[in-house]
Specification:
- The chain has 425 residues and is α+β, with helices and mostly antiparallel strands.
- The strands form 3 sheets. Strands 8-9-10-11-13-12 form a 6-stranded antiparallel sheet. The protein has a 5-stranded mixed sheet with strand order 3-4-5-6-7, sandwiched between helices.
- It contains 16 helices and 13 strands.
């Protein structure tokens, strides 16, 4: 297919852009509405893990029968999925979140008693870190025998993990000690529980039953339904455009199809790259680059610091629906971090913690006053879950504008780092 023909197809599509978008909106209105409160807050890993944690802590007695989700889930994984019938599931089971390893990484969920441990790593919209599961596994070998240590890798579609070396991955798969789950599998597990514990459906337990139904439906949505429903809408509208303009007929060879698909993918990336130009944050990009250089030039470059180059954080903005990126992350310790964070609307410097003990100390008047002094002309803002709600409990922050000086920002970061280090929080 000639380039001119390919571009003509793209041109027809772009000319119909407004009609396509309006048609999609109309198609959405015709759908049966679904309202799931849990879905509003659970489509990132942190909140979804908290939901799973709360679900696994359901433990009560009805008519002398124990309803214990941690035991049921452990049995579902170890015996039903991995065929280890020799493991004792009956003893009391603990479920812990954000278990910190010695290198500062956090295991999402650790399900354990004296007879077994299950590491659960939850991935919705993020990639594995290098050697992530490998490090978790090696860390937990200090606490449990190897044959009693299991891994659950939970993803949208039950993908295999790649943060294990090949030898360990093969060993775990051969020994049936790693389980690749999708969110649909979690939904199926909940259905099994509801069928077995049908007494939960009674009026006395309506809050538990309602929550489980919404969690189940949301897990299905993460894996399948939302993607399928949205694609059905889009396919109906776009297919009509293609049929009306004989685009299918013009794609007469497999090579033509591949070339046309690549053209649309390339065009999509270029279109998304316009976010850099339209975002209010574009004026702060030079400040961010110069701040990173200032920090490095002034000695703040060690194993606690992670700086992104411009190409990477621009790529994050382009690829992320909310145009988010974190070009600067400086760890004071495992539970206290300085970040420079950007999204489609704002750029700000944050001090945040997910430790209640550290939060209490940050709230002490003396420390708060010193942070305020270090911020200088910038207004000290504080608050739970504001402005970045994904992974912290409390934060101090200030906004950075296009008129701010990178040297001032860099100086503040260095002074904050040194002061917080001295406090041994």
């Amino acid at each position: 297919m000639k380039d001119a023909q390919l571009l003509d197809i793209l041109n027809k599509f772009l000319k119909e852009k407004d009609n396509i978008i309006n048609s999609l909106k109309e198609e959405k209105k015709r759908r049966i509405p679904k309202f799931n409160i849990i879905e509003l807050c659970s489509n990132n890993e942190v909140y979804n893990t908290k939901l799973l944690d709360e679900m696994l802590k359901i433990d009560f007695i009805i008519d002398d029968k124990e309803i214990n989700f941690a035991k049921y889930f452990s049995n579902y994984i170890i015996k039903d999925k991995l065929n280890h019938n020799d493991i004792n599931i009956d003893n009391n089971i603990n479920v812990d979140t954000e278990v910190i390893s010695k290198n500062g990484r956090r295991i999402d969920l650790l399900i354990h008693n004296n007879d077994f441990e299950i590491i659960l790593e939850n991935k919705i919209n993020a990639n594995e870190l290098k050697n992530q599961l490998q490090d978790y596994y090696n860390e937990r070998l200090q606490y449990i025998d190897e044959e009693k240590l299991f891994i659950i890798f939970l993803t949208k579609y039950g993908n295999e993990a790649y943060s294990l070396n090949e030898d360990l991955k093969c060993k775990l798969e051969k020994d049936n000690r790693i389980c690749y789950l999708s969110y649909k599998d979690i939904a199926d597990f909940i259905d099994k529980c509801l069928n077995e514990y049908s007494c939960i459906k009674s009026d006395n337990y309506v809050s538990v039953y309602s929550a489980l139904i919404q969690i189940r439906d949301n897990q299905k949505n993460i894996s399948n339904n939302r993607v399928q429903e949205n694609n059905m809408e889009k396919n109906t509208v776009i297919e009509k455009l293609f049929n009306d303009n004989n685009i299918y007929e013009s794609l007469s060879k497999i090579d033509d199809i591949e070339e046309c698909s690549k053209l649309f993918l390339d065009a999509a990336y270029l279109i998304k790259s316009r976010k850099i130009e339209l975002s209010p944050i574009k004026d702060q990009i030079e400040i961010i680059n110069n701040t990173i250089k200032y920090l490095r030039d002034n000695g703040l470059e060690n194993e606690n610091c992670r700086y992104l180059n411009e190409e990477i954080f621009k790529g994050n903005i382009i690829s992320n629906a909310d145009a988010n990126s974190t070009p600067i992350i400086i760890n004071i310790n495992n539970n206290l971090t300085i970040k420079l964070f950007i999204n489609k609307n704002t750029c700000y410097l944050t001090i945040f913690s997910n430790s209640s003990n550290i939060i209490s100390k940050l709230n002490e008047e003396k420390i708060k006053e010193e942070i305020k002094n270090i911020f200088g002309k910038y207004e000290l803002r504080e608050g739970k879950n504001d402005p970045e709600p994904d992974d912290y409990l409390y934060v101090y922050y200030f906004y950075i504008t296009k008129d701010d000086n990178y040297q001032e920002i860099g100086y503040i970061i260095i002074k904050l780092y040194n002061y917080l280090k001295e406090q041994n929080l």
